[in-house]
Write a structure and sequence with these properties.
The chain is mostly helical and about 170 residues long. It folds into 2 domains: about 60 residues, no CATH class; about 110 residues, N-utilizing Substance Protein B Homolog, Chain A, CATH 1.10.940.10. Helix content is about 75%, strand content about 0%. The protein has 8 helices and no strands. Helix 1 runs antiparallel to helix 2 and helix 5 packs antiparallel against helix 6.
């Protein structure tokens, strides 16, 4: 049987993909999510799927900004919706999930597997490159004196990303 977390990520990806494809508002994802949870509820971790979806939507502006920064040669409008939504899941897991629960390498590998299953021929490499870039930036911060533990490293990375977002909005 397929790992329930893996299938849960597939359901999250299908949900956020459909929401993105239909260009719906954030509040309009609930019907898609409810339908997908009902369809797959016996094989997935419903709470995990909901956490992914809610977390991605809550942080989507920053997540998309990180995609743009990590893949500057690919305007976000030109990235396939499949790859973009897989990256959203991977970035959310890298930055917001407890790394004890979802180690960074697992988050990256799961995103690559989703890209290989649902994306185009080069999707796996593209997703790996973008997530690898973000992961390396987080690791660089871990070498600084200010970072005392893993949660501080992620917090510092997020704080830096949010500040950049505010500067660019002006």
């Amino acid at each position: 049987m397929m790992n329930s977390r893996h299938l849960s990520r597939q359901v999250a990806m299908q949900t956020i993909y459909e929401w993105d494809f239909k260009k719906l508002k954030k509040g309009q994802i609930k019907d898609i999510l409810d339908r997908n949870l009902e369809k797959y509820h016996k094989n997935i971790d419903n709470a995990f799927v909901q956490t992914l979806i809610k977390g991605i939507l809550k942080n989507i502006t920053l997540i998309d900004k990180l995609i743009k920064k990590a893949a500057p040669e690919w305007p976000i409008e030109q990235i396939s919706k499949t790859d973009k939504n897989i990256l959203r899941i991977g970035i959310y897991e890298l930055l917001y999930q407890d790394s004890g629960e979802v180690p960074p390498k697992v988050a990256i590998n799961e995103a690559i597997e989703l890209a290989k299953a649902y994306g185009g021929n080069s999707s796996g490499k593209f997703v790996n490159g973008v997530l690898g870039t973000i992961y390396r930036e987080i690791n660089e911060l871990s070498k600084t004196k200010e970072a005392k533990d893993k949660s501080q490293i992620k917090d510092k990375f997020l704080s830096k990303a949010k500040n950049n977002l505010k500067k660019n909005a002006k």
